[in-house]
Design a protein that fits this description.
It contains 14 helices and 13 strands. 27% of the residues are buried. It is elongated, with a radius of gyration of 33 Å. By secondary structure, the chain is α+β, with helices and mostly antiparallel strands. The protein starts with 17 loop residues before the first helix and ends in an 18-residue tail after the last helix.
């Protein structure tokens, strides 16, 4: 089936059975073809949460001049330049003020634009991978390439990259705290139909983007991607909320209003007082012979009242703080955020993928009375088994051979070679066990052909094992 036969309106997926869902999404249990994926990507776009209000280089630069004190200095510089040029004088005051304003803008722009580029690079690097069925085989694709109708393969530890309707499941439990706030994992069921008005937390036959599989395995067909997912709707609501200024910005804004307001009052009083005392003041003709001189004096006083160095000093101080944070591998997007971040005492972070690479390797085996060492690095299925530092043949030790056979049969991961690198599709622990068995010449495909799986008990924290 092709993409143009997809429904235009969004069906209530949790109220449909599996076969009807497959039919409406023009897909089947073997997944989509590469050509169908291309068509659907053109129709639905990439599976990404759209960021509203992304800042271009010009916007970042112009944002540096929104401070009311800088705006006043710009106005003073323009008027001062106009008066100097009118008197055929070099506008040195205007140039000095302009240099301060421009320096402040450049400092802020360089820091914030660099942070924006770094964040964009991080976003590209952090694109998660998803196991799907395409062209009748299991492949691993970037999450952004998912389309409605794709068949996702789920297992413990997987972060959901799109919304989907479950096709089949084995002891599947999903933590949906990101959507519902409930920390307890939800036990899912594929073969049920629910009422149309069932709430998100009770849609037991659905999985949602941003949630995490904590137990079991399943297949699910993608029903929504990008901003059409439940997480995408939340993102749209969050992005519609206006950002609050930081405490530093609030204090600077208040100080700026007071100083600028006071300087404008001072300008008005000086000009008014000078005009009234001017002997050449002619009410009939409104002729002010020394009006320019009065204006220059009042502008000088206004510039003196406004600390033109303050925005630059604050920008430089924040930039220095930001650079110190960067050296400690903390990236700051906007300069004023340094102050807010400075009040943070504890940051809670997930270890996997942040402090560790989420890769595992088996280095030793224990049997009832023996301790075997295993050589080799990474997922490459090449290495030796050592007993008392002597190389051994695994076939001579039945208990080790039986253990390695169990490692490949009680396993949902896939070990494969891409170019010169061995990679794992699935759980890193299961991948390490496949690599271990491969070092003994025990391959998953051969043993699954000899002993096809007819039933299973998935791994659980209670049983601490998987059985097939």
């Amino acid at each position: 089936m092709s993409a143009h036969s997809l429904p235009e309106s969004t069906p209530v997926w949790h109220a449909l059975d599996v076969e009807k869902t497959l039919q409406l999404l023009a897909s089947d249990r073997t997944g989509l073809t590469s050509e169908e994926v291309k068509q659907r990507l053109q129709k639905y776009g990439l599976n990404e949460l759209k960021e509203t209000g992304g800042r271009s280089s010009w916007v970042i630069f112009l944002d540096q001049f929104k401070n009311i004190m800088l705006v006043m200095l710009i106005v003073v510089a323009i008027i001062s330049a106009f008066l100097d040029l009118q008197d055929n004088e070099f506008p040195k005051d205007a140039i000095a003020i302009g240099l301060i304003v421009v320096l402040n803008g450049i400092l802020g722009y360089l820091q914030e634009s660099r942070a924006e580029k770094a964040l964009a690079a991080l976003k590209r690097l952090s694109a998660p991978l998803v196991r799907v069925m395409r062209d009748g085989r299991i492949v691993e694709v970037e999450a952004k390439e998912l389309v409605p109708g794709d068949i996702m393969l789920l297992e413990a530890g997987v972060q959901l990259a799109a919304d989907g309707r479950l096709i089949e499941e084995q002891n599947l439990q999903v933590r949906e705290a990101a959507l519902t706030g409930e920390a307890q994992a939800v036990e899912k069921q594929a073969d049920i139909q629910l009422q149309e008005d069932t709430g998100i937390g009770d849609r037991l036959n659905m999985v949602f983007q941003g949630t995490e599989v904590v137990q079991g395995r399943a297949k699910a067909i993608v029903t929504a991607t990008g901003m059409q997912t439940e997480l995408g709707r939340i993102a749209a609501m969050i992005q519609s909320v206006e950002n609050e200024p930081t405490p530093l910005q609030q204090r600077m804004s208040h100080l700026g209003n007071v100083l600028v307001g006071g300087s404008l009052v001072l300008v008005a009083l000086v000009v008014a007082g000078g005009v009234l005392q001017n002997s050449n003041f002619d009410l009939a003709n409104l002729n002010f012979s020394n009006f320019n001189e009065l204006l220059e004096v009042s502008l000088s006083m206004a510039v003196a009242v406004v600390p033109e160095g303050l925005p630059a000093v604050i920008t430089v101080t924040l930039a220095l703080g930001t650079q110190r944070m960067v050296r400690r591998n903390a990236l700051i997007r906007k300069l004023p955020a340094v102050e807010t971040l400075g009040s943070v005492t504890t940051i809670c972070s997930d270890k996997t993928g942040t402090l560790t690479q989420n890769k595992m390797v088996v280095q030793a085996l224990y049997t009832n009375d023996k301790y075997f060492q295993v050589t080799g690095e990474g997922y490459t299925p090449r290495g030796q088994f050592l007993l008392d530092n002597q190389n051994i043949e695994v076939a001579e030790y039945p208990e080790v051979h039986a253990l390695l056979v169990a490692c490949v049969l009680c396993n949902d991961a896939v070990l494969q070679q891409e170019q010169s690198q061995w990679i794992i599709l699935g759980d890193p622990t299961e991948g390490a066990l496949l690599s271990l068995a491969g070092k003994a010449g025990i391959e998953k495909d051969q043993w699954e052909a000899r002993l096809p799986r007819v039933a299973e008990f998935p791994f659980s924290s209670e049983r601490k094992r998987m059985s097939v």
